[in-house]
Each structure stands twice: as structure tokens, then as C-alpha cells.
Amino acid sequence: MRDKKRDMDYKHIGVRPVAGAIGAEIFGVDLAEEEMAPEVFEEVHRAFLEHCVIFFRDQAMDDDVLARFGRRFGELAPLPPHRQVPGKYPELLIVETQPEDKMVFGWEWHTDTSHLETPTLGSILYAKILPPVGGDTMFANQYLAYETLSDGMKELLDGMVAVHANGRILRTLAEGQTPTPGTESASAGWSKMWAEHPVVRTHPETGRKALYVNEMHTERLKDMTVEESQPLLQFLYAHASKPEFTCRFKWEVNSVAFWDNRCAMHLAMNDYPGHHRLMHRVQVKGTRPV
Ligand code: SIN
Q1: Choosing from 51, 171, 262, 266, which is the catalytic residue?
Q2: Which of 51, 171, 277, 281 is catalytic?
Q3: What is the pLDDT of residue 3?
Q4: What is the pLDDT of residues 70-83, one digit of tens each?
Q5: DSSP letter string over the chain?
Q6: Gap from CA of 153 to ligand 1 centroid (Å)
Q7: Whether the predicted model's global pTM rises above the 0.85 cut
């Protein structure tokens, strides 16, 4: 375990922000230990809520440890049956890029599973095999994205509802490449699942408001066509992913990231063609956005 670097508000763990807007590295916690002292867990949880995504290095984790860490925050969310790996946890998602792959999983800004009525609270990703360089993950703070909008825009968005769907993902999987921007209508034609969520959601634990639309899942604004929705949605996507709201995590083997889907978006860099990357992920069940 590395040296502890302590933030004054934390007595049992070290917490070091990795950027001004989002993300903190946690020190002094061994996730493989069967028991986590309640005061340590309280601080890890507090750091998670404060920083939207937390990172741990040098963790020896098998799938049992990964699942046990996830369960400390709530019930795990199982994958749909066709995504489950026989003999493994039904909640285990294997995120793998083979050297010949053109696409990576999570290639554009999104929050996980917003096409479901009850999207996941957060995801825990563990690095097993990494390319020699590249394969970072980016995160963007959606509290800041909301709070930096003008009062007029906030007023327009508060109470607005968006329709989220899985068309863009299904189309990408079928065609083996990302649909080009401006083909949102065509992607919508692929959708098989839809859910409606407020464009601005209130975090159930912090009470803070966060922007909640993302280019991977948001199909349109409710009661509008896909085309009518695009100018506002495209503005929000660009605003929500401004560099000053982001951090970029450089993985090492045995690193862990745990992000909060209720206030953070993320994106996996597709910049390591010809290399293998293997990550294991579990998801914690969430609540319906309000
Ligand atoms: C994801 O969960 O969206 C993938 C993130 C990553 O592989 O870096």
C-alpha cells in the first residue's frame, strides 16, 4: 500500500483529488480485507459522494472481492441474461478489447444504463490487463455542468424530461462502428428499450442537482422529435463535457475506479489499436431518477 496522503477532513483514509473538478485517489484502504471498519467505510462513502469518482491503486482483487466491495454500497445489479458469463457472478461485466477490435466499450460520454427505468447507482471497474499506453477513462462532473448554466437555461431545463434508449449502442454493435454525428434519427430506429428521466436530477444522497443527459443514451426530449431535440441536446452534451469539468484516469494493473452515475459521466478512450485491455466491472443498483 502506498503512503497515505491525508485530506484534513478524513482521519482514517488518505484522499487526494486528481483534478479541480472531479475524482480523488484514496490511500490506506485494502479492499481485499474481509472486514472494513465502519469508520473507514463512512469515509470512503463520503469521499465517493464528495468527488463523484474515487480511485484505488495496487488492489489485489478477484471477482469475490470486487462483488463484496460493491455490496457495501447496495445490492448488485445483475446483467441481462445474454450478457452473463456462465460460471461467473450474474453481475460481473467483462469489459474487454481485443487487439483487432475497432470499437471499445463505453466509447463516448455516458452514464451507465440510463435507458433503464432504474439506472445503476454506480459502477466499479478493475484493471486486469492494459495496453502499454492509452486506454484511460475520462470522467465529467454533472453537478458543475448544471450549476454553471445560466439561470434562464436552468429554468428551461428544470421540469423537462428526456427519453433515453439503447438504439445508438445496438446500431454500433451491429455495424461495428460509431454512427456519425447527425444520424440520431437513424439510430433511434434501432432502439428496443426506452426510459424517461428528468433532464436535471437531484442526487438522492447529496440533494444536489445534476445534469442528466448523455449522447450515448439520450434519444430526444419528451414530446419533441429527435430532430427538434438536437440543438438543445447537442449544446448540453458539449457543455457537460467541457475540459474544466473533467478528469482523466491513467490506469495501472490492479487499479480500481468507482464512479457515481447520478452525478458523473464517463468515457473510455479508444486509442490503443492492436492491444489487449481487460477489465472486470460490477454495478450497484440505483433508484429511479427524480
Ligand atoms: C465503461 O464502463 O463505460 C467502460 C470504461 C472503461 O473501460 O474505461
Answers
A1: 266
A2: 281
A3: 42
A4: 999 999 999 988 88
A5: -PPP---TT-SSSEEEESSSSS-EEEES--TTSS---HHHHHHHHHHHHHHSEEEE-S----HHHHHHHHHTTSPBPPPPGGGPPTTS-TTPEEEEE-TT-S--TT-SSB-TTTTSSS--SEEEEEEEE--SS---EEEEEHHHHHHTS-HHHHHHHTT-EEEEESHHHHHHHHHTSPPPTT-HHHHHTT---EEEEESEEE-TTT--EEE---TTTEEEETTS-HHHHHHHHHHHHHHHT-GGGEEEE---TT-EEEEETTTEEEEE----TT--EEEEEEEE------
A6: 30
A7: yes
